[in-house]
């Protein structure tokens, strides 16, 4: 089993490396280069050449790639073109805001969706199941910003229960923090809840069709025991994968949420970077999100491997 | 013949009525409504796409236009009607692009196998190692926002999923005995793909097209909402939401209306796909315990 | 009245996905007394499995019990609430399914699953129950009874798992045991030990049992009474002796007639050695990835003759057919088609070579493209090999349909509109369309009911006589092969252990494995099981399991006559015996088994 896990770890590293190549080539190759981006419309050929020389852009792409990658590994994320500040500093301030949003949303949506999924599976074909199925099917197709705007309109503009801007201050007490974060966290949770719940349900339902479930049912065991003791251990692997997938899908949800509620977070920084074509900033943000995504998937895979008795106890 | 006990399966009644459910019917009507508007929009819309009709910005419903005015005093209704065309057309083109990439590569990988499959699958995996929005942002960040970049980027991002679906379908059906029989007969790759495999993939591919179409609407409107999609003065629903978010605090619903329209489009599409897949999951063992 | 179970006027309905409920079981009644074994026999679709589950008041997903009474231990369980009825399952009634490998939860330890039902129903505490089950394991002849409960299902062999499932069913001390085809998925040599274990444990505990099977020979061993079913209705009921020896109903007689006599009792086809060889497999080694499935296999098929290839699951018989067809490339050796060396990969073979050698797959359901009409399925090879088009093609499709005893108008149908037997005939007609010299038949009758299979075999025979086509007939069913093949090849773990003319292979001297195989084929004779289960070769065979890629003789770990120090180390020599018989064994000819 250790060998399988280490192979999987190596695969994760390889994917990360491939991802860095994609990021680098997507941002560096075309069109023009960073020097053009910095100087913008007012560029002259001399200024361009000088800047290129200064930034080392005349070196071959492959050298620049390894240079960049080496910097990344050592924590040097480069210097922003727009602000001339080190990217690492800019990110540091923002990271916590994004992380807090994502963690809170995950803490709410993961247990809730798994529980709802199991409940729905247990009542498969019943009214609860059908209602949940219809609701989640619709919810999946609704854009995140629609959910966010509706929540904002109702709870912040009309009812004034919560704050419309998610700006928290260090001196905020719990209730002030709650007022500020309730809406963005709720929007983010909605964005992933439906999908996770549906997938949990269908993973468990899939297990129901196997002969060992019929066997267990014919032992006269009650439903709850069938679902929790017999189906869940076997559905664990697909459920873990879905959780990892949705947590990383949160990234796109976070982007929208940070925009709507004006959260000064990492994704907002990225979107600004894209608007200003601040290449080093884009690269750094993309690498961070890519790494988180790969890490989450890796974690899900390793947990599934460890939960599989076939791999834990070979013949 | 002495096949006394050999029972014949009755002719499958696939076409014995489409068995439309009420949800499918409503969803279908909504889609049809938007389609008609997209086709005849310019003749129906009371005002021009970017025409400023009132000095009052964020006019409430009924004042200025039927659905009020937006942040520049343009008619929300007219922009909505023009917008459906942009939204639908762009999503359609994007989905077609993603299918052109995904299906071709997916089936090629499943049939050719070997190094081709390994190389393509690895590359797709690396692309999938990013959240799709992030990937699109990086590319748009590098290439700037133009319709072509937008369509190709989103098409590329979506095609990874289409690739996976087609490759899996190709593999699953490629190992069926009837494909083996065709191979044993000496049939070429083209015949096997077009005559043996594809006809058996149509239903899941159509469903996938529906899902990707929905996703592409969501994706494009999300980008527009971030200001990275369609640019003004063109009318696009996602863009309209972005333009008018500020009005929310002034009591205007100019941002909510296009958002709701997008939702109506995607939810209907999703319901229709769900109906098409007829995922009427059979009964489960658990249900039988209660009987 | 000491009936454990009485079913009165049972009606069960089933619903195909998206369809309406239709009747599956119509007005069926039965009863089982204490200590009695009732067999339900019938072909697929007869409702036998459905009925057996109804004895627990249970209907599978997609089915429902529409009427009737089920009296278990003196009360009508259909009148109970679902909850009360569910509480009886795993307490008063328990169930043994067809495949133990699929019926054990892969994520839980075996011991936990075995005692789960009695623990839940409050029969005893975990420690006491575990102690009882260890006794049960011992009675079932399971190796390592103390520790086997600690293992996960994937760590135990199929035959053992099947016996463990019997332990799981018996652990709650049920009054009624339901066995649903419990040995069908096993190979014949494994079936004996499992069957014996089931029979002993039922007798030992005095449990009433309902035994569901399609195999009359198995029924003869275990049942006291037999109920014959057809399309959800009872056809005939009587004691085992009466049904087997004096069946009253026409349908029962048809079933009995379709059972083939034991291999050595068959009139063997006389092989004619004069014909030219159409397929010649020379020292072929093949496999997938790191796995070697076939090693050093040589087989000849002569024109207009039948070579039967027999062996148990995983012995490589299907791979042999695929190698000959060029679907699986070989690693060493060569294939000769019609005297010419054929390329290992079919893409490199000329069209004429492909035409001469056609393959027919086991499952007609998956072998025919569901999206093509019969007209296209049969028409394509005609066009592809012979360039037939238009009306010439249509005429020939009609002729082919007639050749396989199907009406000409079937051409416009889709495979989904045909029965299993009809599909298999189409499958065969597609091979015939190429006008081949040899057809590779891979288990073509295995998925069919005996009566239907007998029809297909008759068709194969008449086609051979009419068209002069040769067959490589691959099957695990010895009786069918014995009655049909001129020559027989016996495969074990990817190697040929014995081959020669059918008569010579099925009469002594035997290879020890051939002997085991032959003696393991269930016979209709009551008491056969007791006789065969106690023999030294049956005991030796149940001690080991099949090893692929063994260094010496692959069978040495299961052979009662193995010479320790020789057989497991060196590959056996091929002994040429009179009558063109070849046996690969270390034993000298004089010491080979004779009975």
Write up what this structure looks like.
- The complex is a heterotrimer of chains A (315), B (291) and C (595).
- Chain A has 315 residues and is an all-alpha fold.
- Chain A has a domain at 90-272: MetI-like (MetI-like fold), CATH 1.10.3720.
- Chain A has helices at residues 2-28, 34-39, 45-55, 61-73, 87-122, 127-141, 144-158, 174-208, 211-217, 223-260, 266-276, 279-307, 309-312.
- Chain A starts with a helix and ends with a helix.
- Chain B is mainly α.
- Helix content of chain B is 66%, strand content 0%.
- The longest helix of chain B has 37 residues, at 76-112.
- By secondary structure, chain C is α/β, with parallel strands linked by helices.
- In chain C, a hairpin with a 7-residue loop joins strand 1 and strand 2 (22-33).
- Chain C is globular.
- In chain C, 53% of the residues are buried.
- Chains in contact: A-B, A-C, B-C.
- At the A-B interface, helix 1, helix 6, helix 7, helix 9 and helix 10 of A face helix 3, helix 4, helix 8, helix 10 and helix 11 of B.
Compact overview of the structure:
Chain B is mainly alpha-helical.
- Give the proportion of residues in helices of chain A: over 70%
Largest sheet of chain B: none
End-to-end span of chain B in angstroms? 42 Å
Main sheet properties of chain A:
none
Structural class, judged by helices and strands of chain A?
mainly alpha
Q: Proportion of β residues of chain B?
A: under 5%
What is the fourth-level CATH superfamily of the domain at 90-272 in chain A? MetI-like
Please give a handful of descriptors for the protein shown:
heterotrimer, A: 315 residues, mainly alpha, MetI-like fold, 0% strand, flat, B: 291 residues, 11 helices, elongated
Structural topology:
The complex is a heterotrimer of chains A (315), B (291) and C (595).
Chain A: H1 2-28, H2 34-39, H3 45-55, H4 61-73, H5 87-122, H6 127-141, H7 144-158, H8 174-208, H9 211-217, H10 223-260, H11 266-276, H12 279-307, H13 309-312
Helix pairs in contact in A: 1-12, 5-6, 5-8, 5-10, 6-8, 7-8, 7-10, 8-10, 9-10, 10-11, 10-12, 11-12
Chain B: H1 22-44, H2 76-112, H3 114-128, H4 132-143, H5 147-174, H6 177-185, H7 189-197, H8 202-225, H9 237-244, H10 256-277, H11 285-289
Helix pairs in contact in B: 1-2, 1-10, 2-3, 2-5, 2-8, 3-5, 4-5, 5-8, 8-9, 8-10, 9-10
Chain C: E1 3-14, E2 22-33, E3 37-41, H1 48-54, E4 63-72, E5 75-76, H2 82-88, E6 93-96, H3 100-103, H4 110-114, H5 116-120, H6 126-139, H7 158-170, E7 176-180, H8 188-205, E8 208-213, H9 216-222, E9 225-230, E10 233-239, H10 240-245, H11 250-258, E11 277-288, E12 291-302, E13 306-310, H12 317-325, E14 330-337, E15 340-342, H13 351-356, E16 357-360, H14 364-367, H15 374-386, H16 390-403, H17 420-433, E17 438-442, H18 450-467, E18 470-475, H19 478-484, E19 487-492, E20 495-501, H20 502-505, H21 512-520, H22 528-533, H23 536-543, E21 574-577, E22 581-584
Parallel strand pairs in C: 3-8, 3-9, 6-7, 7-8, 13-18, 13-19, 16-17, 17-18
Antiparallel strand pairs in C: 1-2, 1-4, 4-5, 9-10, 11-12, 11-14, 14-15, 19-20, 20-22, 21-22
Helix pairs in contact in C: 7-8, 8-23, 11-18, 15-16, 15-17, 16-17
């Amino acid at each position: 089993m250790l060998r399988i896990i280490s192979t999987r770890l190596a695969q994760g590293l390889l994917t990360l490396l491939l991802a860095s190549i994609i990021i680098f080539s997507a941002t560096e190759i075309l069109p023009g280069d960073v020097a053009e981006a910095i100087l913008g419309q007012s560029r002259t050929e001399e200024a361009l050449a000088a800047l290129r020389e200064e930034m080392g852009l005349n070196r071959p792409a492959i050298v620049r790639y390894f240079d960049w990658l080496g910097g990344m590994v050592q924590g040097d994320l480069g210097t922003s073109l727009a602000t001339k500040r080190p990217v690492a500093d800019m990110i540091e301030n923002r990271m916590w805001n994004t992380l807090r949003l994502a963690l809170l949303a995950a803490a709410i949506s993961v247990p809730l969706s798994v529980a709802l999924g199991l409940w729905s599976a247990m009542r498969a074909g019943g009214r609860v199941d059908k209602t949940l199925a219809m609701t989640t099917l619709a919810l999946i197709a609704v854009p995140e910003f629609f959910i966010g705007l509706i929540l904002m309109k109702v709870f912040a503009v009309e009812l004034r229960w919560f704050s419309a801007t998610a700006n928290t201050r260090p001196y905020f007490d719990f209730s002030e923090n709650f007022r500020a974060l309730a809406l963005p966290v709720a929007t983010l949770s909605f964005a992933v809840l439906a999908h996770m719940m549906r997938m949990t349900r269908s993973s468990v339902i899939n297990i129901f069709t196997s002969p060992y479930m019929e066997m267990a049912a014919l032992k006269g065991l009650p439903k709850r025991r069938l679902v929790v003791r017999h189906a869940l251990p076997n559905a664990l692997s697909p459920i873990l994968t879905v959780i990892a997938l949705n947590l990383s899908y949160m990234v796109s949800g976070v982007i929208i949420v940070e925009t709507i509620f004006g959260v000064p977070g990492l994704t907002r920084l990225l979107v600004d970077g894209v608007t200003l074509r601040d290449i080093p900033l884009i690269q750094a943000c993309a690498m961070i999100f890519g790494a988180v995504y790969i890490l989450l998937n890796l974690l899900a895979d390793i947990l599934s491997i460890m939960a599989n008795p076939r791999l834990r106890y070979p013949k | 013949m002495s096949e006394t006990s050999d029972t014949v399966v009755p002719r499958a009644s696939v076409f014995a009525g489409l068995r439309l459910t009420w949800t499918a019917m409503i969803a279908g009507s909504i889609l049809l409504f938007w389609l008609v508007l997209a086709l005849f929009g310019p003749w129906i819309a009371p005002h021009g796409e970017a025409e400023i009709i009132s000095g009052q910005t964020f006019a409430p419903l009924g004042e200025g236009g039927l659905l009020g005015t937006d942040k520049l005093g343009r008619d929300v209704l007219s922009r909505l009607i023009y917008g459906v065309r942009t939204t639908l057309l762009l999503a359609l083109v994007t989905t077609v692009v993603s299918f052109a990439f995904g299906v071709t590569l997916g089936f090629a990988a499943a049939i050719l196998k070997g190094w081709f499959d390994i190389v393509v699958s690895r590359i797709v995996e690396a692309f999938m190692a990013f959240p799709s929005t992030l990937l699109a942002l990086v590319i748009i960040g590098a290439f700037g926002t133009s319709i072509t970049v937008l369509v190709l980027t989103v098409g590329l991002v979506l095609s990874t999923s289409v690739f996976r679906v087609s490759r899996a379908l190709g593999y699953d059906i490629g190992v069926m005995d009837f494909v083996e029989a065709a191979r044993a007969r000496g049939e070429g790759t083209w015949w096997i793909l077009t005559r043996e495999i594809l006809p058996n993939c149509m239903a899941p591919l159509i469903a996938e097209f529906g899902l990707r179409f929905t996703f592409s609407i969501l994706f494009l409107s999300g980008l527009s909402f971030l200001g990275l999609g369609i640019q003004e003065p063109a009318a696009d629903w996602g863009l309209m939401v972005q333009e008018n978010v500020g009005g929310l605090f002034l009591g205007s619903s100019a941002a909510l209306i296009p958002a709701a329209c997008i939702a109506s489009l995607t939810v209907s599409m999703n319901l229709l796909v769900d109906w098409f897949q007829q995922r009427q999951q059979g009964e489960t063992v658990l249900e039988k315990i209660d009987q | 009245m000491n009936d454990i179970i009485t079913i009165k006027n049972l009606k069960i309905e089933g619903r195909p996905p998206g369809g309406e409920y239709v009747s599956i079981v119509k007005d069926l009644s039965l009863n089982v007394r204490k200590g009695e074994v009732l067999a339900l026999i019938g072909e697929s679709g007869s409702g036998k499995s459905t009925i057996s589950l109804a004895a627990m008041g249970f209907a599978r997903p997609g089915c429902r019990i529409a009427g009737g009474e089920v009296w278990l231990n003196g009360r009508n369980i259909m009148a109970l609430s679902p909850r009360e009825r569910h509480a009886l399952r795993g307490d008063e009634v328990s169930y043994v399914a067809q495949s133990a490998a699929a019926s054990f939860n892969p994520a839980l330890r075996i011991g936990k699953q075995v005692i789960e039902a009695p623990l839940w129903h409050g029969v005893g505490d975990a420690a006491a129950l575990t102690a009882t089950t260890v006794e049960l394991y011992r009675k079932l002849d399971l190796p390592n009874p103390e520790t086997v409960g600690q293992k996960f299902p994937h760590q135990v062999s199929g035959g053992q798992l099947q016996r463990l499932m019997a332990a799981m069913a018996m652990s709650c001390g049920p009054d009624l045991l339901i066995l649903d085809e419990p040995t069908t998925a096993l190979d014949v040599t494994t079936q004996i030990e499992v069957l014996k274990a089931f029979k002993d444990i039922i007798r030992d505990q005095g449990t009433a049992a309902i035994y569901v099977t399609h195999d009359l020979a198995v029924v003869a061993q275990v049942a006291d009474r037999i109920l014959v079913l057809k399309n959800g209705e009872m056809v005939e009921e009587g004691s085992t002796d009466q049904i087997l020896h004096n069946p009253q109903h026409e349908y029962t007689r048809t079933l009995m007639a379709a059972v083939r006599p034991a291999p050595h009792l068959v009139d063997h086809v006389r092989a004619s050695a004069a014909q030219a060889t159409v397929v010649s497999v020379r020292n072929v080694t093949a496999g997938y990835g790191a796995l070697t499935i076939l090693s050093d296999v040589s087989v000849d098929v002569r024109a207009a003759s039948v070579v039967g290839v027999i062996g148990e699951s995983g012995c490589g018989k299907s791979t042999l057919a695929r190698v000959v067809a060029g679907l699986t490339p070989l690693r060493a050796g060569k294939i000769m088609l019609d005297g010419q060396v054929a390329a290992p990969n079919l893409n490199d073979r000329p069209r004429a070579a492909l035409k001469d050698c056609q393959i027919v797959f086991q499952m007609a359901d998956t072998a025919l493209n569901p999206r093509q009409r019969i007209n296209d399925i049969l028409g394509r090879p005609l066009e592809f090999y012979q360039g037939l088009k238009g009306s010439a093609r249509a005429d020939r499709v009609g002729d082919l349909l007639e050749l396989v005893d199907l009406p000409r108008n079937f051409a416009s149908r889709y495979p989904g509109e045909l029965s299993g037997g009809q599909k298999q005939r189409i499958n065969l007609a597609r091979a015939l369309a190429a006008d081949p010299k040899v057809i590779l038949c891979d288990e073509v009758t295995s998925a069919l009911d005996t009566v239907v299979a007998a029809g297909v075999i008759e068709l194969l025979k008449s086609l051979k006589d009419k068209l002069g086509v040769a067959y490589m007939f691959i099957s695990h069913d010895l009786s069918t092969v014995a009655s049909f093949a001129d020559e027989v090849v016996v495969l074990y773990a990817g190697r040929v252990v014995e081959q020669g003319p059918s008569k010579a292979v099925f009469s002594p001297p035997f290879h020890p494995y051939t002997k085991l195989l032959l003696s393991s084929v269930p016979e209709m004779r009551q008491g056969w099981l007791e006789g065969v289960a106690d023999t030294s070769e049956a005991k030796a065979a149940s001690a080991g399991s099949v090893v692929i890629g063994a260094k010496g003789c692959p069978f040495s770990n299961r052979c009662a006559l193995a010479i320790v120090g020789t057989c497991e180390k060196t590959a056996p020599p091929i002994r040429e015996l009179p009558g063109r018989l070849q046996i690969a064994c270390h034993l000298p000819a004089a010491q080979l088994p004779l009975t």
